[in-house]
């Protein structure tokens, strides 16, 4: 039971001894066991909700329902509007194109967006690694203790995001909401599970490895698109996907001879990263489908986080983990500050995402976030002492070169598609 504490101690990190991650925790703290326990907690909410929805639909409640609960049930189960004919009606409002007279203002906005995104997500990344891989309350005689419940961190992030989105919707004009509320629960559940996998993976793999794995998720997305949807891709998409896979392989293989205690890639870490990619891909695709209703991204953020708070707090209460986590916060004020700041950065980062895409488009946003990933790896190596070999560094460079090439090629394709005759359509891309 002391192994996690020894792993986090500076002396162990300095010697670089390898301790099998599977021995770090007791069987009750093993990630697969906790995953099923959390899933059972979510099922205790999802299953009754599903049965209620089916009951109201079978009863034809829209025509037979009456009483004070009718508006609430109608909004949650049936919604109040039909889908929009044009999907772009439910997406972000048209972004303002820069003009010559407002060049300085556009430059200032771009710097503001870039600084906000970098500050939010770089701080979030550093804190994420600190909370999941280091101990709290360590002294000369006491090794301290690690915080283990990733679900509580997910709950902290979602409760603040729910509050921020709710205030934003209340203070600004939003489109009339028409989507059935229960449909947010699908994206919410997959979003919770992807975040949980992301936090848990840091117990088994290094933060730089996690960042590179996220950058390479375009590969399974393309494979699924080819096999399932029969999509066609341009040559440059295959080229960049191959470059990404080569770069990731160089980084992972280069760390094999001299494994650092905090950079050991285990099978559990790979499975958790795969879970993150699968759940995250489902979240984005389901949200795209929901945008066929008239709604703003902040309304989407609010709806998803409503169910995220419900699922996580319900599961935490059923396990008795909520009180234990609160006691941990009471014992360690440093952890409290880290958890709150982590949540603030997550919520503010989401708002910066919406604002940046609205003002400058997805291409500029992708470039900023790609730079953020590179800076995140650099910061993690500097602060937490991760070692990267020359070959590993070249692998990282290849990955980000491929990502920038992908952004450039996609922007060129969009410009070309605007010049196509009305009857022609460009090749589908991911």
From TrEMBL:
It comes from the Eukaryota. Keywords: Membrane, Transmembrane, Transmembrane helix, Transport. The keyword Ion transport does not apply. It is a multi-pass membrane protein. SUPFAM superfamilies: Multidrug resistance efflux transporter EmrE. Signal peptide: none annotated. Belongs to the nucleotide-sugar transporter family. SLC35B subfamily. It is found in: Membrane. This is Adenosine 3'-phospho 5'-phosphosulfate transporter 1. GO terms for cellular component: endoplasmic reticulum membrane; Golgi membrane. GO terms for molecular function: 3'-phosphoadenosine 5'-phosphosulfate transmembrane transporter activity.
């Amino acid at each position: 039971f002391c192994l996690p504490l020894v792993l986090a101690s500076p002396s162990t990190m300095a010697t670089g001894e390898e301790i099998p991650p599977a021995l770090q925790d007791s069987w009750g703290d093993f990630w697969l066991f906790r995953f099923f326990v959390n899933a059972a907690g979510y099922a205790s909410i999802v299953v009754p909700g599903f049965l209620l929805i089916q009951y109201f639909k079978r009863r034809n409640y829209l025509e037979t329902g009456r009483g004070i609960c009718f508006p609430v049930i109608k909004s949650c189960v049936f919604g109040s509007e039909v889908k929009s004919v044009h999907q772009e009606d439910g997406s972000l409002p048209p972004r303002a194109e820069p003009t010559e007279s407002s060049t300085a203002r556009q430059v200032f906005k771009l710097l503001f967006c870039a600084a906000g995104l970098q500050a939010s997500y770089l701080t979030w990344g550093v804190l994420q690694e600190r909370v999941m891989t280091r101990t709290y309350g360590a002294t000369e005689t006491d090794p301290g203790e690690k915080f283990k419940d990733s679900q509580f961190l997910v709950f902290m992030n979602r409760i603040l995001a729910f509050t921020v989105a709710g205030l934003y919707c209340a203070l600004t004009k939003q489109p009339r909401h028409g989507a059935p509320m229960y449909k947010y629960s699908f994206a919410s559940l997959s979003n919770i599970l992807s975040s949980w996998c992301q936090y848990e993976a840091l117990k088994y793999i290094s933060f730089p490895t996690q960042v590179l794995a996220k950058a390479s998720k375009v590969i399974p997305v393309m494979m699924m698109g080819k096999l399932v949807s029969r999509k066609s891709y341009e040559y440059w998409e295959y080229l960049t996907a191959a470059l990404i896979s080569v770069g990731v392989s160089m980084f992972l293989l280069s760390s094999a001879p001299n494994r650092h205690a905090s950079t050991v890639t285990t099978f559990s870490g790979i499975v958790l990263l795969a879970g993150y990619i699968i759940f995250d891909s489902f979240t984005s695709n389901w949200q795209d489908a929901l945008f066929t209703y008239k709604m703003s991204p902040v309304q989407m953020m609010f709806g998803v986080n409503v169910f995220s708070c419900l699922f996580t707090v319900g599961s935490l209460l059923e396990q008795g983990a909520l009180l234990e986590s609160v006691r941990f916060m009471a014992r360690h004020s440093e952890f409290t500050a880290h958890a709150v700041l982590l949540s603030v950065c997550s919520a503010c980062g989401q708002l910066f995402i919406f604002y940046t895409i609205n003002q400058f488009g997805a291409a500029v946003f992708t470039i900023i976030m790609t730079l953020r990933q590179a800076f995140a790896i650099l910061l993690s190596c500097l602060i937490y002492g991760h070692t990267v070999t020359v070959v590993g560094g070249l692998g990282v460079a290849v990955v980000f070169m491929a990502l920038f090439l992908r952004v450039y090629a996609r922007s060129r394709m969009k410009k070309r598609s605007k010049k196509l005759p009305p009857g022609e359509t460009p090749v589908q891309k991911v």
